[in-house]
Amino acid sequence: MGGTENAKGQVLRKKRGFGFVTNIKDYCTNCTLAGFAYIANSRLHFMERIFWLICVFMSSLGCYQLIMGYQRSFPTRAVSIVYESLPPFSKWKFPAVSVCELAYRGNLFPKFEEYITSLGVDVTGDYPYDVETGVSILLFPALYNENGLKGKCGTVHKNCTDACAKCPSDNYRQILTWYGANCSDLFVECKLSHEPFDCCRHFLPLLTPFGRCYMLNSLLNNEPGSKHWLPNELDPAHQKAVINVITRLDVQISVINAEDIPHTAFFPPGIPLITEGLSKYMQFNQVAMKNDPDVKDIDPKIRSCFFPEEIPADSLYKSYSFSVCITECIRRLQMKACNCTSFLYNPNADPRYPDCDLEGFLCLEKTRMIKPDSRVLVNNNKGNNASCGCLPSCNDGDITTIYEPLLFVRNPNKYYNGTLDMPFLPTDQYRRQSLRTPLDVVVSMGGMLGLFLGASILSAIEFVYYFTVRPLSNMLGARAARP
């Protein structure tokens, strides 16, 4: 009885194997791929069939090598950047502007000085300049020098009474908000193309690695079309691309790309206004970057850039740029080193990244993480623990200083006056264009498969048909034919 069942199983397996071989032969005989019909034709001499087998094998190998070569060259040949001329009399588009507080040489807002005085006196009973410097370092990073915080806030004077001032232990974000200069305290007058505009309506505050800055037309805290966005397209027939800003305190005024953030690691074109009653002037040139619509369809790692709207999931900012990426990388390194971050790297007080207190800042200084600008930039693409792997923004154009006079003009008042001028109409721009879109990939792959094997999209459907629908149809037909 058992032998009979084994024999039946062997017969069934033979039938299945024979059916599979029949399906393969049926496919090769009738498929549209070139050469396969000759291999399956039993009426031909076996030497002819071997000849066609070799031809199909060599064609398949050649097609594979060509496709692999195409894939290897794709990352280096998918995008091209060209330099092209602009139409004459095209409109000016003024870049974004940042105005950042400097507190140069202890020139602080009076309310802030009153706060420092309330903390106490120094060892000699005078104004606590060391405490002022220590707090200024935390609020205005441009003033920071290596180990400067420990020397001002990390040293305890043994001969000092309880009345001696000490650096506040925490709440630096609130200190800057409560005792720093607000917009109306800072700005006196703003003009674009010699036309005045409301400074505090269009310059919006933002905490940045450079300190507290006021941003004009920045994608980080504004958006085109909003009531705070200043129209920046200017007609060269009757408008000039020049901005003038007058302030009551010393500031750094710079022109930047709309998606960039002011950072101590970068030095965009600009002028420091650090002497009251003095006017400074600078001329700059801008070469914009435009992108073809097809560029967005290419993977960012292949095009080697991100668009401003391609924001990482854990980002704290509304737009992507290289400077923003470096900022967020430094925040992660600070968290890893001391389990806290400078409040200037967390503009919206996200609870995932707690603000450092004084001990946290001393920890950051000890690990050289308060201002690790050069180390982070040098290691950006090296793949080590300090590597950020940041890519530039796809909209990142070139803004360069072309003239800054050495002689300055004295004002009759005590204000700080800065003028940034783009004197020449832009005549050229960069354009990033796509050389290989997804459609190009489909066409190229299909062309290679068609050239070597005569394949098409119907060939793939045909393959599925012969090994699914066709055997099922044959099986149902055989059952129906049984008596």
UniProtKB/TrEMBL annotation:
Annotated signal sequence range: none
GO biological process: sodium ion transmembrane transport; sodium ion transport
One cellular component term from this protein's GO annotations in UniProt: plasma membrane
Any one GO molecular-function label of the UniProt entry: ligand-gated sodium channel activity
Topology within the bilayer: Multi-pass membrane protein
Lineage: superkingdom: Eukaryota
Pfam families in the cross-refs: ASC
Cell compartment(s), UniProt: Membrane
InterPro entries, per the entry: ENaC (IPR001873)
Keyword rRNA processing: no
Keywords, alphabetical: Ion channel, Ion transport, Membrane, Sodium, Sodium channel, Sodium transport, Transmembrane, Transmembrane helix, Transport
TM regions (residue ranges): 50-67, 441-467
Homology family: Belongs to the amiloride-sensitive sodium channel (TC 1.A.6) family.
Name this polypeptide is given: Pickpocket 15
Organism: Drosophila melanogaster (Fruit fly)
